[in-house]
């Protein structure tokens, strides 16, 4: 997948296009990555590529479903089961399991974003308890986009360290 078309000028289309571009980039980084490398850390902080993938899935869930849509969700912080906030992957979770969960969350996020306008405010009752603290959809989407930009860069480096694969 390539960046959105140069002719796009509608902010909603640009945000949707760039979010999908980055989401696809995450999926590409896992293509051909061994299960062993997905589960091991390449950095001093100790996070793993699989932990990062799970974090991104839960990040989508927290900001779009629980946050913007105000849906009741189980375990909105399910990627951080340990008290110190580190990303956590259950020993029995597979790359395929986490990838399927990631894709499911991305699909739901797309549907939520498509059903609203950028200046709509998040619902009260999920992540946000009062109307005074609800961000707009534009704010939420930009936040999600910056999460992807930062973490895809992390995956770029880890993938190069794992097996030398660089670029797209």
UniProtKB/TrEMBL annotation:
Family annotation (SUPFAM superfamilies): DinB/YfiT-like putative metalloenzymes (SSF109854)
Pfam families, per the entry: MST (PF04978)
Domain of life: Bacteria
Gene3D superfamilies: dinb family like domain
UniProt organism field: Actinocrispum wychmicini
Protein name (database record): Uncharacterized protein DUF664
